[in-house]
Design a protein that fits this description.
Blueprint (H helix, E strand, L loop, with lengths): L10 H19 L6 H9 L5 H5 L1 E3 L5 E3 L2
Antiparallel strand pairs: 1-2
Length: 68
């Protein structure tokens, strides 16, 4: 089912725009180093099946891998 198209914002939504703008600008302009392992896991997660996600286990060095 598709949601109806939004044609206008409520007063509350308009009031929240500066807060949301600041939050997402901070995220977009962040130049801190990324955690490559976490990023790779986040990208891979939607590509895995529910069963594989349920089988996530920690190996001896603490990293996460898909177990079967």
């Amino acid at each position: 089912m598709t949601q109806p198209k939004i044609s206008e914002l409520t007063t509350e939504q308009i009031a929240l725009l500066p807060i949301i703008w600041d939050e997402w600008s901070g995220i977009g302009l962040d130049t801190a180093p990324t955690d490559k392992r976490k990023a790779e896991e986040a990208i891979a997660l939607p590509q895995t099946s529910t069963l594989e996600i349920a089988n996530l286990v920690n190996n001896s060095n603490g990293s996460t891998y898909i177990g079967k």
